[in-house]
């Protein structure tokens, strides 16, 4: 089977943000083109938050052209990261909506963006051998820190591209199976959480991730569906 993700790989030493770079070439680039940089000088998370991207990590964006912009694309990234970590002996889980955590700390973040009818950009940041800034140390970790030694970055990238290709195909052909796996890997289910949606704080028990990617919560006996979007989730 011809691979989609990684059909073309653009390697950069330094860039502002691979997501922004990918957008500038998305029209001409074949689907599956990967933009990867050694360092980002303006790496971004959601809501314009900054993403620390010094040398040693994987900072990449995949240009995809699915039939429609679909927020569940972010789960392709999350599952691929979880599988890559497992390949190196690290057991990780998805913190809905867009992070991958190990032992209570964030090791990876996903930023999916799309332009309807044109392209989607799947941005992935994975802390591998890079240092974690002092101010993030309580909440962030890296593969190197978890394993106790430096990892072969090229090998990690190879595994990640392979898993991305696999999960992207599942996303296209059997989104129900993709979501079943997301449910299995989401570690917040059954736990008390607070979702912050704009000014609103919603506290309850996370029950399920539904097939459309939304989170089902039990708020004091009432069920509420939280749409996938710019929401933040806190565990407590
Ligand atoms: P939530 O997803 O619940 O809104 P979040 O803190 O994960 O909260 P995001 O916008 O998803 O917010 O991610 C950006 C945040 O990630 C930054 O505000 C920073 O706290 C953290 N962060 C920045 N760089 C890194 C990194 N390399 N590794 C881990 N975390 C980082
Ligand atoms: C988040 O947790 O909010 C998402 C972080 C996404 C970071 C990656 S690194 C590669 C790509 N380029 C960016 O500027 N952001 C994403």
TrEMBL record:
<feature type="domain" description="BPL/LPL catalytic">
    <location>
        <begin position="1"/>
        <end position="172"/>
    </location>
</feature>
<dbReference type="InterPro" id="IPR003142">
    <property type="entry name" value="BPL_C"/>
</dbReference>
<protein>
    <submittedName>
        <fullName>Biotin--protein ligase</fullName>
        <ecNumber>6.3.4.15</ecNumber>
    </submittedName>
</protein>
<dbReference type="InterPro" id="IPR004143">
    <property type="entry name" value="BPL_LPL_catalytic"/>
</dbReference>
<dbReference type="GO" id="GO:0005524">
    <property type="term" value="F:ATP binding"/>
</dbReference>
<dbReference type="InterPro" id="IPR008988">
    <property type="entry name" value="Transcriptional_repressor_C"/>
</dbReference>
<dbReference type="InterPro" id="IPR004408">
    <property type="entry name" value="Biotin_CoA_COase_ligase"/>
</dbReference>
<dbReference type="Pfam" id="PF02237">
    <property type="entry name" value="BPL_C"/>
</dbReference>
<dbReference type="InterPro" id="IPR045864">
    <property type="entry name" value="aa-tRNA-synth_II/BPL/LPL"/>
</dbReference>
<keyword id="KW-0547">Nucleotide-binding</keyword>
<dbReference type="GO" id="GO:0005737">
    <property type="term" value="C:cytoplasm"/>
</dbReference>
<keyword id="KW-0436">Ligase</keyword>
<dbReference type="GO" id="GO:0004077">
    <property type="term" value="F:biotin--[biotin carboxyl-carrier protein] ligase activity"/>
</dbReference>
<keyword id="KW-0067">ATP-binding</keyword>
<dbReference type="Pfam" id="PF03099">
    <property type="entry name" value="BPL_LplA_LipB"/>
</dbReference>
């Amino acid at each position: 089977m011809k691979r989609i993700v990684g059909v073309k790989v653009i390697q950069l030493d330094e860039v502002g943000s691979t997501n922004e770079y990918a957008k500038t070439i998305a029209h001409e680039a074949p689907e599956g083109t990967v933009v990867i940089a050694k360092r980002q000088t303006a790496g971004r998370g959601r809501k314009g938050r900054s993403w620390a991207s010094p040398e040693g990590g994987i900072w990449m964006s995949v240009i995809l052209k699915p039939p429609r912009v679909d927020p569940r694309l972010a789960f392709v990234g999350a599952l691929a990261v979880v599988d890559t970590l497992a390949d190196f002996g690290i057991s990780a889980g998805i913190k809905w909506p867009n992070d991958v955590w190990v032992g209570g700390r964030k090791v990876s973040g996903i930023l999916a963006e799309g332009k309807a009818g044109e392209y989607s950009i799947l941005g992935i940041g994975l802390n591998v051998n890079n240092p974690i800034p002092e101010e993030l140390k309580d909440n962030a970790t890296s593969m190197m820190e978890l394993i106790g030694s430096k990892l072969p970055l090229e090998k990690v990238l190879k595994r990640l591209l392979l898993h991305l290709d696999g999960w992207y195909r599942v996303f296209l052909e059997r989104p129900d199976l993709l979501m079943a796996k997301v449910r299995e890997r989401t570690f917040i289910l059954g736990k008390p959480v607070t979702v912050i949606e704009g000014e609103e704080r919603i506290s309850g028990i996370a029950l399920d991730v539904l097939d459309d990617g939304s989170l089902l919560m039990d708020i004091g006996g009432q069920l509420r569906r939280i749409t996938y979007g710019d929401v933040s989730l806190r565990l407590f």
